[in-house]
Amino acid sequence: MITQKISKMILSFCVVMGFLCATLSANSEDLGDVDSPIKLAINEWSGQHITTYIAGQLLEKLGYSVEYQNAGYLSQFQALGDGDIHATLEGWTNQLGDIYPVKVEEGAIVDIGSLGLDAGEGWVYLKFMEDMCPGLPSLEAMNDCADKLMTPETLPMGRFISYPADWGNRSEQKIAAFNLNYKAVPGGTEGAMIAELKAADASQKPIFMMFWQPHYVFSQIGEVGWIDMPPFEAVCDSDPAWGSNPDEVSDCGFEKPDTLKIAWSGFQERWPAAWELLAAFQLDNASQEAMMYQIDVEEQDVVDVTSQWIEENEGTWSPWISSAMGG
Amino acid sequence: MFSEKNYLPFIWGGLLLFSTILMVFGNNTKWLLVFPETLQIPIADYLDAIMLVFVNLFRWLFRFISFVLDWPMRGVQELLSWLPWFTFASLATFIAWQGGGRNTAILTLILLLYIVIVGYWYEGINSLSLVVICIPLAVIIGFVLGVLGYRSPKANAFLQVMLDFMQTIPAFAYLIPILLLFGFGPVVGLIASVIFAAPPMVRNTILGLSRVPPEVRESGTMSGCTPRQRFWWVEVPTAFPQMLVGVNQTTMAALSMVIVAAIIGGFEDIGWEVLGRLRKAQFGQSVLAGMVIVCLAIILDRITLAYAKRQLPTESHSGFRLKQFLMWFVGIALVTYILSLIIDPLRIWPEYLEFYPADGMNELVRIIITNYGEFLEGVKNNMQYFILLPVKLGFTRSIYPITWGFELTPTIIGLYWTIIIAGSILAFVKKNWKLGVAIPFLAGLLYFGITGISWVVYLTVLPLFAYSIGGIRVAIFVTGSLLFLMVAGIWVPALISIYLCSVAVAICLILGGLIGMWASTSDRVSAIVRPINDTLQTLPQFVLLIPAVMFFRIGEFTALMAIVAYAIVPMIRYTEQGLRNVSPTAVEAGITSGCTPSQIFWQIKLKLALPQILVGVNQTTLFGLNMLVIAALVGTTGLGQQIYLALSKVDAGAGIVAGIGMALIAMSADRMMQAYIKATKK
To answer: What's the domain count of chain B?
Structure first.
């Protein structure tokens, strides 16, 4: 169904912009190996799907064929290194895992630059909790409130929901570094975490959870707050003496993450124009969040939503296409 | 069974004393509580190193296989998704009719229509093409291995061990090396499915061939067959019905891998759809998509079963002869294809005709949560306070005023142990030494918790226990497994897995046993329970997680509920079957000798059904361990989580070690239970 939609779309684009297609085929020496498909990684969250489908459709405009490949967020780096997948377009620098630096050092994968999303993450809570835990959003107030979040599982400590275990354990480190009276429970999946947040909001139960933005869920629940932490500095992660806890590192806020486009090392040589396009490709929060809402809340199809965006934002992407053809 | 081993009570008594001294005086000795790190071996790292060498040496070969397999897979996928749904559904219904007659055909048609109307035709067909390629591969490989096992006892011994591992190592664990060798993509899912689906075919082939009556074989020789002719013309046809049972089981196994395969590289198939919906916690959507897999499973199950049955002389439905069948087949294909060219909705079901009641289902869940949230929370908390926490942490670490309503004072502790010791002594006096030993051991387990007992105690008690029920071989196996878990450094997560699984199995035993008993006495209950069981078992395991998370949020309790939902099925089935199979003459004999109804039930029926019920217990345990890995997705901390983490990091060594650990636990439990079943049968 979807491939048919895609092929219909390509067709209509080619008709509308026949001249563009014609110029492209004239320039085919810059395109490289057009016959083999470029494989783009699809990870676990919908924001990433949007980013990837936009990039994929733009690549198709250049005359490439694109295949989407479902891959785990960390395991994709193995596949990228082996050349089984050719690019992934939304790598969050805060959790690239142990495997990413290894593969970069081996020279198997390459960073093609920032995607440009203004991303943030931290510990989220629901605003109504400021009545039961006076002093929020301070860390002290959160700590004093631990007994209100006590559950059988975390006894005698409060329950804190951290990221799914395969996304790393930075919250656990910070709980230890700040000496908080909480025990982290891994969140399982994005969906399970959203369900927790929504359930807490619906039943007005307190919750502390590691979360990130941009995210559509904030448009569906009551107001949220973020816990205040000392601002991040690089020295905090290396020098235990820095910060409130003299014996532990990472007793500070989260480092502001960047989002990277990452490719297989053979990419540039094989598809030079595609490489230029991906290097130029940028996406902003407002666009991604609006599309996320259309997909996750309004239940629209990701291909429809992204192709509509492409139709409406030609001014944004046409410079990328021309830079790809010029390069 | 203990009678000939007169020295056993004394060993058990000594061990009891030893364990008591250890737990009382060794309480503060760290190396007694935690397996010392100096004794651990970095097996995972060694495996990683071996794996690296192996991958670098042979990757080209595996890449080549994956390249070759990619073609038929894409071909089938293209072909099936090109066919109008109307043509496909008609042909499938016709094939179903040919095999099983009208009822099978109607069922097939209805289930296919569900897939069409819900709007998952394309995704469903994509998954089906994976299964369609997987089945012949698994069947051929299974057949060849089965013949090998049947011909050579040496190969058979090796095969049996391999099969045990293939079926007990969680698929998650062997996905990692497969990934490293074969690369990413749909083919990897196919290969994982073949590995998972081949064992039932091997087993059934061996079984079928070894059950060929010697007279049949001799008559083949007498009529002048060469060994090869005798094999193909006499033995294989005789074993054929059994092999078809294998094909059926292989089909079901392949289908159950559809979602697992989606994790590592499916795309736009139904497994991917379920997984994506699940990750977004969309209850209605994931159930609707999950039902598609259930439909496919039921269709394939019924059709393969029908063809297997057709081999029996008792079957009345015979269908067309081959030539006639083929003519009809081509005819139907042509007519429906032309029709679908004329009437567009017959080719691609239009979106405005789709029926997708996900929002209503989600609303229902929301209403239940708002109205019964407090009640569900209460159930969860009480289960945690009074069952899960004591088993995991023991009374010492779980009784607080906020949980049980009182403090664990020395008086209460003293009282507890006085009662236990008194009970134990009483049992000894009554000459029931087994009970006398069991009482203090169980009391100690609850007092210290599964995770609070020294590894030394496990390493002495469990092997002796295994020896008492199964003899020296089982004891050696259990000891080896324990040592592996400890030395490999996965003892703590293994204990958590064992704890969660044993609580789940206990719940299944009680609940499933009761349901099974009830179903055995009432045909109506049985008729209601059976389809529920069928659905629970064909439902992809992941789907069971969805309602559990919705109602109970992330955590061990949720995992427990999901495990129970999946593992309770064999317990219900075997209990019902066992009780129904009790021969009426035995019951009548009881009635004539004046037994009361309750005596008839407890002393006659239950006793006679026990061996079969125990098989159910065994299956339930294995199912529970199997589900444990998948339950890791909703927040457990045991071996399952280790495997899941290893998979997400492509850490082959850690994954394999945890997977083998899981398999060893399952196999140990299985061996002990098998031995016990054998003993009760005598």
So the answer is: 2
β-strands A182-186, A38-42: how paired?
A: unpaired
Give the CATH H-level superfamily of domain A2-118+259-326.
Answer: Periplasmic binding protein-like II (3.40.190.10)
User: Which residues of chain B are within 8 Å of residue A75 when distances are taken between CB atoms?
Assistant: 179, 264, 647-650
Chain A residue closest in CA terms to B359:
A299
pTM of the entire structure? 0.81
- Which residue intervals of B83-185 are DSSP H helices? 85-100, 102-118, 121-151, 153-168, 171-182
Whether A10 shows a pLDDT value over 70: the answer reads no
Q: Give the nearest partner residue to B634 out of A77, A166, A192, using CB atoms.
A: A192
Last residue of a domain, one of B330, B363, B396: B363
| Nearest residue in chain B measured CA to CA from A202 | B370
pLDDT at A24: 47
- pLDDT tens for each residue of A238-255: 888 887 788 888 888 888
Is A74–B650 a contact, with Cβ atoms under 8 angstroms apart? yes
Cα-based distances in Å from B536 to A165, B108, B199, B640: 28, 19, 22, 21
**Residue B268 to residue A97, Cβ atoms within 8 A:** no
Buried b (16+ CB within 10 A) or exposed e, A228-244: bbeeeeeebeeeeebbe
**Whole-number percent of chain B with pLDDT over 90:** 24
> Cα separation of B47 and B655, whole Å?
10
Q: How far apart are CA A144 and CA A158, in angstroms?
A: 10
What is the pLDDT confidence band of residue B409, given thresholds at 50, 70 and 90? confident
Please judge whether A75 and B634 are an interchain contact, meaning their C-beta atoms are less than 8 angstroms apart.
no
Nearest-CB residue to A166 (from B279, B634, B645): B645
The predicted-structure confidence for A63-114, as pLDDT tens digits, reads as follows 999 999 888 788 888 889 988 899 999 998 877 877 888 899 999 999 999 9
| A23 pLDDT more than 70 | no
Say if the Cβ atoms of A69 and B555 lie within 8 Å: no
- Please tell me the distance in Å from B660's CA to the nearest CA on chain A: 21
Q: Are the C-beta atoms of B199 and B141 separated by less than 8 Å?
A: no
The DSSP symbol for A184 reads E
The complex's ipTM works out to 0.71
- Mean pLDDT taken over chain B: 86
Using DSSP bridges, classify how beta strands A259-264 and A224-226 pair: parallel, antiparallel or unpaired.
Answer: unpaired
Residues of A in contact with B644 (CB under 8 A): 165-166
Q: Does B403 sit within 8 Å of A192, measured CB to CB?
A: no
Cis peptide before A134 (omega within 30 of 0): no
CB contact under 8 A, B122 and A156: no
| CATH H-level superfamily of A122-238 | Glycine betaine-binding periplasmic protein; domain 2 (3.40.190.100)
Bridge partners of A262?
A88, A111
Domain boundary among B308, B329, B363: B363
